[in-house]
Amino acid sequence: MQLISFQTFSWSGRYQVVLTACRSTVVGVVVSMGNLLSNVTYVDTLDKCVSALQRIIRDSVIAVDCEGAALGVNGVISLIQIARTNGEVYVFDIFQHGEFLYVSEFRSILESSNILKVMHDCKADYANLFTQFQIRLTNIFDTTVAHYEIGSYYDGIKLRGIPTIGLNKLCEIYGAPKHATKDMFKDIYKSRPYFWLDRPLTKDMLDYAAEDVSCLVPHLYNAMMKKCNKQLEYNIIESSTTYSTYLIRNIIGISRYTRPNIVPQVQTPK
């Protein structure tokens, strides 16, 4: 384990916070949403962080999501959740432990072209990781993009932009377990936009965060992959790269961001 040196970040605006800081189908455990949360680990120490990363870095496909306040170019990341295909979920407390993202393995996982990151509508997460921690997510399978590409392939219809679609709607379409508390938390966001900066985290908060990635891998990803051939999977990963960098390219500007030259890594059958 290696800690990369870093500077303290300060964020100003409405608030101020200081942070110290695949072509084969994934084989996953068959579980219901009721027991998906039994394998959740809340990561709030450096030892836990290193132990979790040593497991995750061996995987070829993971699910990733972030929670925070006003996520985007000027937001603050509170949590990063990672789900493995065996049902394990790790919720990293980045708000209290920004130093986690300067453990070399964490950056390696997020920027690796050999680990596919399954995400849902990841524009804001990508922008926040880049502006707050200079991390460039690489090799992304965005489920919003995947739904659009799958529909375009089978229906032959190309839209000008990729329409937004909710995670639970996608789960319904593809027969994956839904996020049980998604709608309930929407009302909380409206009245308390900095909700994810609260500490201590409640069990409901941890369960919600975990479900955001438990829905994606292996369930939704596997269901989408059943509709993909090799070329379509390649298109999804390539389009996800363009889609994920939208906020960076259009808000920060091209002068401050150069799109990485990425060759999507498509998993071959074993």
Automatic annotation (TrEMBL):
Pfam assignment, any one: DNA_pol_A_exo1
GO molecular function, one term: 3'-5' exonuclease activity
Domain 3'-5' exonuclease: from-to ranges: 37-229
GO BP term, pick one: nucleobase-containing compound metabolic process
Record-linked InterPro entries: 3'-5'_exonuclease_dom, RNaseH-like_sf, RNaseH_sf
SMART domains: 35EXOc
Name of the featured protein: 3'-5' exonuclease domain-containing protein
Taxonomic path: Eukaryota, Metazoa, Ecdysozoa, Arthropoda, Hexapoda
